[in-house]
Structures are given as C-alpha cells and as structure tokens.
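Hi R.,

Here are the chain sequences for the assembly we discussed:
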Amino acid sequence: MRFRTYSLLGLFVFLRPLGNLSLAWGTKHFPQVLSLNPMVYLRAMVDPFVALGIAMLILALLTRMALLSLADLSFVLPVTAIGYVLATLFGQVFLHEAVGARQWMGTVLIFMGTGLVGTTSQNTTLPAEEPD
Amino acid sequence: MKWILLSIVVTATALSDLLQSHEMKRAGAQSVGARGLARLLKTISMRRDLILSIVCLAISFFAFMALVQAEPLSFAVPASASSFILETVAAKFILKEQVGIRRGAGALLVLGGVILLAR
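And here is the predicted structure of the full complex:
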C-alpha cells in the first residue's frame, strides 16, 4: 500500500507541473489574447500544447483523488507541495523565468517541510482497503 | 473585492479537499491504471459529494483567475496558500486525522516556502 501511495505521489508531482508547463507554453505561443470570449478559449484548446496540458491536469486531478483514498489530507497537502519546486525549475529551464535567492530559499523550506511530513504515518484514520 | 475573492478561493479549495478526502477514503483504495481509472470515474459519477467537490474546485479556479486578474500574483499565490492551514486544522478536527508536531511543523515550513516562492 505504501508503494502504491508513493507511486501515485510521484505521478501527481510530475503531472501537475508538466501540465501547467504545457498549458503555459501553449497559451504563450497562442496568437490571440485570451479574453472573456469563450470562442477564443475553445480555439486555444485545439492547440496541441494546451490540449496536452489540460489532459495532464485532468489526469493529475484523478491521481490526487486516488491518492486521497490511501493517505490523509494533512499528509497529501504538504508532501505534494514539492510540485511547486518542480514548477519553479521548469519555469527557469523551459520558460527562462528568473529565479532569485528568495525563491531558492522557499524551495529549501518546501523540501524540509515535505521531508518532515514524509516521515509521519500516511494514513491515521480508518484503513481504506475495501470499498464500502 | 480582493478579500471576497480570496475568501471564495480559500473556502472553496478547503471544502473541495475535505469532501474529496472524506469520500475517497470511504470509496476504498483506488489506482490510476487503465482499469483503475475506469473504476475511479465510476466512483466519482456515483458519489454526489465527489461531484460537489469538483464543482467547488471549479469555483475556486475561476475565483483565483479573477483574483490574479485584479491583484499581483505575489499577493494571490501566498494569500491563497493560507488554505494549507485551514485545511490542516479541518483535517484534524473534522476528518479526525492525527496531526502531530512533525506534521504541523512540516505544513508550516511548506507554507513559508510557498510564500517565499511567490514573486
């Protein structure tokens, strides 16, 4: 069960920033400005990067829901925050966003917090083995 | 207006997560393999509270979009991360999870990190 939890955790932690990256890449290269007009959004969703981003984010949502069937919310919340670190790294590497000392300090704090929560029991309520 | 939007973001996010956590634990262990995904989608479609949690998530998303349109991201991201604290407290008292010193301290460190990460 612990292996399945960490597999889902790993999948979610990569899927969300990759989905956001793909979405950001697609919208930044989209020729029209996104406005309140829903047609513009629909056209943007046909863009392969935007579509891939949305698909990855939907899969990330489902993965997180599966994760919540195995682990506590108070465990999942801080541990999945490691995704913020990946998002920062991806932003710097692929979108050439500036990342300063303050952001790296934040990254260190998130690593420490995630590591600390990772040492606690993943499920402190009733076991979720069998569907009701 | 920004405080109203922020309240909507934080409340809707917390409500969505609490509903998801409660219902998914009741639904039993899930996976995201080919068969697991089909079972998970069936579970979602059959549980009203899970559908409600997705509606809450959508409300939170659109309120966040409106917030970042009016306010700088450097305010919106750390301010909305305050849902971390609300959710951890709610997990302890509503979901009856055991939030000890290590887990509480870890959540606070992560919150501090998210605030520093925001530009």
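Chain A touches chain B through 51 residues (CB under 8 Å). Residues 2-118 of chain A form one domain.

Let me know if anything looks off.

Best,
T.
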